[in-house]
Design brief:
There is one protein chain. This protein has 2 helices and 43 strands. With 436 residues, it is mainly beta. The protein folds into 4 domains: 100 residues, Immunoglobulins (Immunoglobulin-like); 128 residues, no CATH class; 38 residues, no CATH class; 83 residues, Immunoglobulin-like (Sandwich), CATH 2.60.40. The chain has a 6-stranded parallel sheet, with no helix packed on it. A hairpin with a 7-residue loop joins β37 and β38. The longest helix is centred in the first third of the chain and has 15 residues. The termini are far apart.
Length: 436
C-alpha cells in the first residue's frame, strides 16, 4: 500500500507542478544604518500564487534569525513569488512595516538585492546595501543605501534620504511632497549623486559632500537649498569652486536678480574674509539705503568695507583703466602712470562767444582743454560744457601763447575766460574740477 501511494505521488507531481527555491542570505540593517543584531526576519507570500507555467504555490510563511553582526541565517523561498519581509530588531524596539519583495529567479540572492523588486510603495523605512528599481519608488520613511542605488523609474520621497554610496535616477524625482525633507550624499570623495534625465523637484535641502550631477535633467523648484561642499559646475565639470560654462555665440551670464520694489531691496554679490566685506550690486527701484549721499535707488555700486581700502586694477602690461560715463567723458589711469580725463568723441565741450571762428581742441573735456580764440579783439571766451555739472565747479585758466592774466567765471553749464589783453588766434587753457 505504501509503495502504491508513493507511485501515485510520483505520477501526480508533474500535474501539481514544481518550482525551484532561491537561497537568500546577507546582512540586514536598521533605518539608522546599524545592523539588526539578534533579530528576526519573517517572510509571508500573503496569498496562494500561480507562477508562469501553471505552477501553484500555496501561501508561504517562513522566518529566520540574525546573528551578532546582522547576518541572517539563509532561508530558501520559491523562485518568482511575491511577498513581504518584516524585520524585527529587539534593540530598535520592535518590528518595522512590511517591505514588499519579488523573489528572483535565481539559485541564490543577497537580501539587499531583492528588497526592491518592481516597485516600492512604503510608509516605512528602507535599508539596503544596494538598491535596484525598475519602476517608480515612493517612500514615506527614510531611504538608507550603503552601496550603489539605481532607479530606472522615478523617486518620490516625503521622508529624508541618506546615501553613502551613489544614486542614479533616470526618471522624475520629487523630494518632499507634503513635508520638507533633505537628500544627503554622505559618501567620500568621488561618490556621485546623478540625475541624467527627467527632473528634480525639491521642497527640502539637497546636500552633498561628493558631486551633484544633473546631466540633462532639470533642477527646479528648490525651495530649500542645494549645498555643495567642494566644487559646483554648471554646464561642465568644475575646475574652480564655482564654474559656469556655456560655449555659445552669445553672452554667458551669472546673475543675481531681485525685482522687489521695497525700501531695502538690492541684488548683491559679496566677498568676505569673515571680518570685512566687498559688495557689488544694484539697489532696487524703491530702495532707500543709508550711509552716504551716493547711496540711492536704481544705482549700481561697488562697496569696499575693508580697512585697507578697495583696489581696482588693470593688471596687464601697460594696461589702461577706464571709468566711462554715458556722455563720452572718461577718467583714465594710463599704463604710463598718468591720471587723465579724456573724451571718446561721443560729446565734447563747444566754444561760445570768443571772437569770430573760435574752436575747441578735439581732446578737450569738460574738466580741461584748450579754446582757440577767433579773430577780432577778444578778451572774453565762453566754453560750453558737453554735460552740466551738478554743482558750480571751481575753475582756473591761463593763456598759453601770450603773457597776460586770465580769470575763470564758471557756472554749471560752462565757464567764461576773461583775459587782460586780446588773445585773438591764441589758445586759452582751462581746468575745472567738479563738486557733487
Amino acid at each position: 500500500m505504501r509503495k502504491l501511494l508513493a507511485t501515485l505521488a510520483f505520477l501526480l507531481w508533474p500535474a501539481l507542478g514544481w518550482a525551484a527555491n532561491c537561497t537568500i542570505s546577507g546582512k540586514v540593517f536598521n533605518p539608522d544604518g546599524s545592523a539588526i543584531v539578534n533579530g528576526t526576519i519573517q517572510f509571508d507570500s500573503v496569498v496562494q500564487q500561480t507562477l508562469q507555467g501553471g505552477v501553484t504555490i500555496p501561501r508561504t510563511t517562513i522566518s529566520t534569525i540574525t546573528d551578532a553582526t546582522g547576518a541572517m541565517r539563509p532561508i530558501a523561498i520559491v523562485q518568482g513569488i511575491q511577498g513581504q519581509f518584516v524585520f524585527c530588531a529587539p534593540s530598535a524596539g520592535g518590528c518595522g512595516n512590511p517591505t514588499p519583495v519579488l523573489i528572483p529567479v535565481a539559485a541564490s540572492a543577497d537580501i539587499s538585492a531583492i528588497l526592491i523588486g518592481i516597485q516600492l510603495s512604503s510608509g516605512g523605512n528602507v535599508v539596503a546595501s544596494s538598491l535596484n528599481v525598475s519602476g517608480n519608488s515612493t517612500m514615506g520613511g527614510t531611504l538608507t543605501v550603503t552601496g550603489l542605488a539605481t532607479l530606472n523609474g522615478g523617486l518620490n520621497v516625503t521622508g529624508n534620504t541618506s546615501l553613502s554610496g551613489a544614486l542614479n535616477v533616470t526618471g522624475a524625482t520629487q523630494l518632499g511632497a507634503t513635508t520638507a525633507p533633505s537628500l544627503t550624499l554622505n559618501g567620500t570623495t568621488g561618490n556621485v549623486l546623478t540625475f541624467p534625465n527627467g527632473s528634480i523637484d525639491a521642497s527640502g535641502n539637497i546636500t552633498t559632500t561628493g558631486t551633484l550631477h544633473t546631466g540633462a535633467a532639470t533642477l527646479g523648484n528648490v525651495t530649500g537649498g542645494v549645498a555643495q561642499f567642494t566644487q559646483l559646475g554648471i554646464g561642465a565639470a568644475p575646475a574652480w569652486n564655482l564654474d559656469v560654462q556655456v560655449n555659445q555665440n552669445a553672452t554667458t551670464e551669472a546673475r543675481v536678480y531681485n525685482n522687489n520694489a521695497g525700501a531695502s531691496a538690492a541684488a548683491v554679490l559679496a566677498g568676505s574674509n569673515g571680518t570685512c566685506e566687498t559688495d557689488m550690486g544694484t539697489w532696487g527701484t524703491g530702495a532707500t539705503p543709508s550711509g552716504s549721499p551716493f547711496y540711492t535707488a536704481n544705482r549700481n555700486f561697488v562697496l569696499g568695507g575693508c580697512p585697507n581700502g578697495l583696489l581696482i586694477q588693470a593688471a596687464g602690461t601697460s594696461a589702461m583703466l577706464y571709468l566711462s560715463a554715458p556722455n563720452g567723458n572718461n577718467v583714465e589711469v594710463l599704463g604710463n602712470q598718468h591720471f587723465l580725463s579724456a573724451n571718446n568723441n561721443v560729446s565734447h565741450p563747444t566754444p561760445g562767444s570768443c571772437g569770430t571762428g573760435p574752436s575747441v581742441t578735439p581732446a578737450s573735456t569738460d574738466e580741461a582743454g584748450f579754446i582757440t580764440a577767433g579773430s577780432g579783439t577778444v578778451t572774453s571766451c565762453q566754453v560750453v560744457f558737453a554735460a552740466a555739472f551738478p554743482q558750480v565747479p571751481p575753475c582756473t585758466c591761463s593763456t598759453v601763447t601770450i603773457g597776460t592774466w586770465c580769470t575763470a567765471n564758471p557756472s554749471t553749464s560752462g565757464v567764461t575766460l576773461t583775459t587782460g589783453t586780446s588773445v585773438a588766434g591764441s589758445n586759452i587753457a582751462w581746468h575745472c574740477w567738479g563738486n557733487v
